[in-house]
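Retro notes (design track)

What went well: tokenization of the new backbones is finally stable.
What didn't: we kept losing track of which sequence belonged to which structure.
Fix going forward: every design gets posted as structure first, then sequence, in one message. First example under the new rule, 96 residues:
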């Protein structure tokens, strides 16, 4: 019997402060209202490694499952780390 260990990526090291960022939001997204704009910003910040999963999904005001679907629809790879696992466990225990 072969045992498999879960492989977690090392969390990328970032400085605590970001000097500046530039986000491009398509005009059609800007015309779709606040929810679409917040989702687009959350996706960009997550994809660039500036926001972790939980923070990005809260900015977008989406559930875990909804944000995962949004990542998939936009072909953005999920960065899953040990801290994300701990946050997911806490969310499940709290009933979110």
């Amino acid at each position: 019997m072969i045992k498999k260990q879960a492989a977690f990526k090392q969390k990328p090291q970032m400085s605590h402060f970001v000097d500046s960022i530039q986000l491009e939001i398509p005009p059609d997204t800007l015309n779709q209202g606040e929810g679409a704009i917040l989702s687009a910003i959350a996706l960009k910040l997550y994809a660039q490694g500036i926001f972790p999963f939980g923070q990005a999904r809260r900015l977008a005001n989406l559930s875990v499952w909804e944000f995962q679907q949004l990542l998939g629809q936009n072909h953005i790879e999920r960065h899953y780390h040990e801290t994300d696992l701990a946050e997911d466990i806490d969310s499940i225990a709290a009933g979110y």
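Added context from the reviewer: Residues 29-94 form one domain.
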